[in-house]
Amino acid sequence: MDLRVTIVQTELHWQDAGANRNMFTEKLAAAAPATDLIVLPEMFTTGFSMNAEGLAEEAEGPTLAWMQQQAKQHKAVVTGSVMVKEGEAYFNRLYWVRPDGSYAKYDKKHLFRMAKEHHTYTSGQEKLVVNLNGWNICPLVCYDLRFPVWSRNSNNAYDLLLYVANWPKVRSNAWSTLLQARAIENLAYVVGVNRVGTDGNNHPYSGNSAIVHPKGYHLLETSEVEGIHTIMLSKKELDDFREAFPAHLDADAFSLL
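Above: the chain sequence. Below: its structure as tokens.
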């Protein structure tokens, strides 16, 4: 079965969860077509902020409830990451929210030390692979993109690798290059969703959200403007490519400690 993927590239209201939820509600109501999966950026309710003590929500807080409402309304999975407090720890947590209200979660593994993210948030230790319409999907968060071992597609465990991000403009070349590399090396589609605009720390973001074919070419590449884009991914095309070019059979065997 083919998979319809919708990516949302937008500016974010700095550290204002209510304004961001309202903004996404309006954007999705106005522009989102029939789709299977809606992908929002990293920390889509706040921007990439280290003010977790003041802004983090409880694990089942208002943003998760909002995502459940949006998933039900649009009859699609909604995913993106938010600040979450659990016990005494804070997490940069991706939620994968289904139309029936059920959800899965992934806590960002690689914390961006250049912004001292590792001083505020706790690193996740478990990958997530979820199934949607016969597709296995592995969602990751931003800085995870730089670490190919973590995203290694052992035995073709997933068909689509997904990154939600707040990736600054100054490193946009790395963003685009690494998305293509992850697609090629993992024989999988790759979706990367980034934001645009300037955040409260005066860091500009150029977007460059993209959907990359397993062969490494772009099926969709956005510019530095807001927009909602939907594209159909072909499972048959992926399966045929893997059969014709089974590089995964020659991959080095290893395991993470």
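The longest strand covers residues 77-86.
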